[in-house]
Amino acid sequence: MTGFIGNAWIWNLYAVQLECLLAIWGILILLSDAFAPTSNRRTIGYMTAGFVAAALLYSFFLVPLQGSLFNGMYRLDTFALYFKRLFLLALTMVLVMAAEFSPRIESGVAEFYALLMFCAVGMLLIASVNDFILLFVALELVTITFYVLASYLRRQIPSLEAGTKYLILGALSSGFTVYGIAYIFGTTGTTNFDTLSRHLSALGAQPPLAFTFGMLLVLTGLGFKIASVPFQIWAPDVYQGAPTPVTAFLAVGSKAAGFALLLRVLFTGLMPVQYIWGPLLLVLAGATLLYGNLGAIPQHNIKRLLGYSSIGHAGYMLMGIAAGNALGVSAVLFYLGQYAFTNLCAFLAIIAVTAVTGSDEIASFSGLGKRSPILGLALFLSMMSLAGVPPLSGFFGKFQLFAAVIRRAQTDGHYYVLAVIGAVAVVISLYFYLGVGRAIYMQEAEDPSPIPVSKPMRLALYVCMVAMIGLGIYQLPLVNASIMAAKVFGLH
Amino acid sequence: MDILLGIAVLLPLAAAFLAFLFPANKPKAIRALAMFATGVSLLITLVLFANFNRHESGYQFVHGISWLPTYGCSLKFGVDGISMTLLLLVGFVSFCGAFVSSEIHEREKEYYILFLALTSGISGTFCTLDLFFFYFFYEMAVIPMYLLIGVWGSLPPGKHGRTKEYATMKLTLYLTAGAVLALIGLLAIYSISGTTDIEKLQHNWVATNTQMWVFPCLLFGFGFLASMWPFHTWSPLGYAAAPTAASMMHAGVLKKLGAYGIIRLALPLLPQGARHWANLLAILACFNILYAGWVALTQKDWKFVIGYSSVSHMGYIFLGIAALNVVGVSGAVLLMFAHGIMAALTFGLIGFFYHQTHNRFVPDLSGLARKIPFIGVCMVMAVMASSGLPGFANFVSELMVFLGAWHQGSTLFRVATICAVWGIVVTATYLLWAVRMSFFGPFDEKWSMLKDAVTFKQKFPYALLLAVLLTVGFYPRLLTDIIKQSVATFVPADSEPSIAATPSAPDLAKVQE
After folding, report:
1. Residue with the larger pLDDT of the pair B395 and B366
2. Cβ contacts (< 8 Å) between A403 and chain B: which residues?
3. pTM for the full model?
């Protein structure tokens, strides 16, 4: 079941080198903190960001490998590389944010960076998962570090609340996942996705009820990661309470990790039973879209707003998965790519503003367009990109997802309903995203003093903005990358 | 020559990016850049118009580059008689809009960037030959308006009890709702045909029963932007709150995008659907004409009067489209042009005196023509054009719409035509009332500080727009020839009125003159 390269340890090492690099650097950070306590907390952050950026560049020299490694547990295909690059990108930006944020962390700044690194190692593993056992291990590595990260501001009640909430619900969903894995293993005798898929195809008839039960439990755990209805309750509270860099990493990294798992599990292992999960996801996508976008309307805290918006975006991406065609999968991949830039841009701007104002309320962003034109523009553009307005990248992301759903609707009319719900959600979302825009440009600030923006921050903002506009106008590079990555599933 | 079209479309966008790099404390340079970009675009458009082959009905100056080969879409521009006419409209209105933007004295940099992006979005929609880019530019034109109104607009308190923030949010949400509805229809067409090339799509790919539901998606989706009754309520409020140049662009050009979407995509791509829904469209058109006209009768704010008047005029355009014959649809296209110029002129003039009076409440204004005779004369002419007096382009186009609708033949359309003709009387009533109240009558001393347009720079935009209206009014064949040719390529010949029995509209117009 493993290719010939599976036995060569050198290839195994080649496949996990990014994970190793990050883990080693994370340990080095911890050591440096122990032996040479540095007074400048930002420097470590910027150095780490630089290192991860270098790793990101290096990842473009890696070549995808055929077949699976580590006895079929691990893959380094185009899909895995696509997500690894996405996670490294997110980590770079989050580290810049963390460095900006570090003065607000009382103690353990180095541990904060190190935890982010270890969390990213888990995400990199998730990109390559090809077995339920590794899925669980990698998922736990990510989730457990997030428990700590979310409650890192330990003297602030909201942060503690966020951590606790995430811990309780996360532990519960992990329990569901492992329970479901046990059922799947019990009914099919395998945890490997390829074997599972072969087994289910050979079965021909309806799988046993216990298997379906197990599958639903696994989907519960993954639904928690992506914050899809009905496992979305935690998102607004945790987004609001967690330290902002952690919120950003949750919104970009953790969400993408959840989708990586969902795509991999559904389109390899569970592909033969698409007729079971397809209609389920159709319903969930519609419900998630409506919940996230309607819930965001009355919000006046921008992090909470982005929490609801992240539920809404999970709904959009579920549209692509529910569509179940090649266009749908590549649309989800494109969407995640551009969503990373867009959301990171928003959180970068939020961190820079709250460092001065100390408030996450949308009202405190009033007059931002005058106080700091670059921050105002960055936040406004990211809101518009989230709303899906051309010429920004979010527009093309949504365009592809709608195209995928409508293509599917040619054979199954129910999908038109999903497309209409998506369309309604776009209009609703524009309302609350423009509410932020109104604060930025149409309302006057109480305190009109300018807001300083540090150089690394400025650089990160420019990168995100150029990416948002660039990918909105010239979509081809990311479209091609996402199509290449989606090819591993061999869909039509 | 072909590449010039792309330059005319994208030049304002390029200027917007360039303006982004300018320092914000150099408003004059940015303004000059905006004038230059829109001016050169207009010049290029005129050159293209002069070189337009008037005996060819298809697309000309076609030029494109492959953009997303995986989706088969390409950035491709080309114009036929219909889009050439409307491109001229964008050229004139945007240039004049940039001219009158001198009233903006706050955050000029952002203002001009948005204005230029808006211009490119609109002309892009008119010229693109690709479904994806059609939607791309269409949506791109909607959002700059949100900020233009919200930041630089003004809405005097009144019975409506709304703020400019409310007005601009309502406008944006309505237009986006329409846009996503249209998107579903467009994507359905794309997934059936597998191509986004508008030229290729005209070979009728869509099965008849699918057309029945795709057509209303496009009709109502684009209808939102064209302020189709009952989706029109955003429009007068939005214009009232918008700064002058934004009202000019919106009422003059942006609104026409909706009608253009119906004519360019819905009619040729879904002919059976169009026939099926034409009767409903005609009924809605009557509501547009009479209901909006009736509401305009009760308005006291100049911008609301003109706002409702423009909703009412969109009804004639819908009626012309619903007629589904060459005369009717061509009349609708010509009316889009004529009404666009006229609306831009009127909003420009209102902006001119409102900038000084800070009051546009009709009963408060009196005898202004003594103090600002040039503006008064222009306003009288604009109002006459709007009421459909012979000699202006509006007359010809409205006549064509009436003829087209009458010749459609069914009783419904005859009744609709009678309603529409009655609508002209309503229009004349409220417009003449507003002009008489505010420009004539006893002069009120509190307006003695008003200054007229005296310099060439001040007079030029209004004079230019008036000249265009008169030129097309006296020589409508300049545009109707090319419009009719292109319309005839997709409007079914069987519903064509027998030319021998009736003189064609332009000929009639000449008789009137």
Report:
1. B395
2. 71, 187, 190-191
3. 0.92
